């Protein structure tokens, strides 16, 4: 079957506004058969069409295609083995749900820039504490990242682009940023999910835990155990072990899902649950 041309796609979009339901359904089905990347640019233009019927149907279809495209991206990511599944790709996919139009490349370059600012000062002879101090200074003093105590349950706090924009976030998103910058520098960083909190683990000459929500505060094993018990949980050794990228992303999605449930946004919650299912069932 030949690939639809731009003219074909534009004509089919207009036919979606036809008063005959069968014609509109036929046009929609033909568009669904076309590659998403071919159709999306034309749909974005159609949502401003002068015809309100075309405009309305194009807007609904655009949302449907965006969701289908995101599902496909999650499928591709989830199909990778845990040894290669990329945390950075997944973190930006989480953000793409709320910000489908936003170009995420500038935010990747921001991560690059933070690492580049620290790199000249990193030396193998430095102690791990000195190295952590350099990264903390860059991210929390110079870049201005901090925990968001005021709007903790804002969905934007689960979106890495908005955390970078606003310089505020929740523990897991700030920790992911810390890890992504640190790994650009070759630092041995991993995510650690405690009950009710998220930390970064630095495995150097000794192991220490870093709390990006509190400006990179350093914690000992005993500090972490006290936190777990203060949350009302018995301590389990696995709480302090590094999490794989898949598990970190699943927790990010779970946070966003819970926010949508608690704010009575069932459709959004259902979409996020779909991404969770893709990610965990393929793992």
Notable traits:
four-stranded antiparallel sheet, 12 helices, two-stranded parallel ribbon, 2 domains, Leucine-rich Repeat Variant, 59% helix, 283 residues, 9% strand
Secondary structure topology:
Blueprint: H1 6-15, H2 21-33, H3 36-46, H4 52-78, H5 87-98, H6 105-118, H7 128-142, E1 146-147, H8 160-166, E2 168-169, H9 171-184, E3 189-194, E4 197-203, E5 207-211, E6 217-219, H10 221-230, H11 245-262, H12 266-281
Parallel strand pairs: 1-2
Antiparallel strand pairs: 3-4, 4-5, 5-6
Helix fraction bin? 55-70%
The secondary structure category is alpha+beta
What proportion strand? 5-15%
Unreliable sequence segments: none
Number of helices: 12
Number of domains: 2
Mind telling me the C-alpha Rg? 22 Å
Number of strands: 6
Write a compact overview of the structure shown.
The chain is of the alpha+beta class and 283 residues long. It has two domains: 6-78, Leucine-rich Repeat Variant (Alpha Horseshoe), CATH 1.25.10; 87-281, no CATH class.
């Amino acid at each position: 079957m030949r690939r639809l041309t731009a003219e074909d796609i534009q004509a089919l979009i207009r036919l979606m506004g036809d008063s005959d339901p069968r014609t509109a359904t036929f046009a929609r089905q033909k568009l669904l058969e076309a590659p998403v990347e071919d159709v999306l640019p034309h749909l974005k233009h159609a949502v401003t069409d002068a015809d309100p019927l075309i405009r309305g149907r194009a807007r609904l279809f655009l949302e449907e295609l965006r969701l289908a495209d995101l599902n496909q991206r999650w499928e591709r990511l989830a199909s990778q083995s845990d040894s290669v599944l990329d945390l950075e790709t997944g973190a930006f996919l989480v953000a793409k749900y709320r910000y489908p139009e936003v170009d995420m490349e500038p935010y990747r370059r921001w991560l690059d820039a933070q690492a580049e600012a620290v790199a000249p000062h990193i030396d193998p002879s430095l102690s791990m504490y000195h190295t952590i101090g350099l990264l903390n200074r860059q991210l929390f003093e110079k870049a201005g990242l901090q925990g968001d105590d005021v709007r903790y349950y804002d969905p934007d706090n689960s979106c890495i682009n908005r955390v970078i924009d606003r310089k505020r976030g929740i523990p897991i998103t700030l920790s992911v940023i810390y890890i992504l910058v640190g790994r650009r520098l070759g630092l041995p960083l991993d995510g650690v999910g405690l009950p009710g909190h998220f930390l970064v683990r630095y495995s150097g000459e000794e192991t220490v835990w870093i709390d990006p929500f509190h400006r990179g505060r350093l914690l000992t094993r005993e500090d972490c155990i006290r936190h777990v018990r203060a949350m009302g949980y018995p301590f389990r050794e696995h709480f302090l072990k590094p999490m794989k990228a898949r598990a970190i992303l699943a927790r990010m999605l779970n946070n966003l899902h819970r926010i949508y449930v608690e704010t009575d946004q069932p459709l959004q919650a259902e979409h996020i649950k779909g991404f969770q299912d893709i990610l965990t069932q393929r793992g």
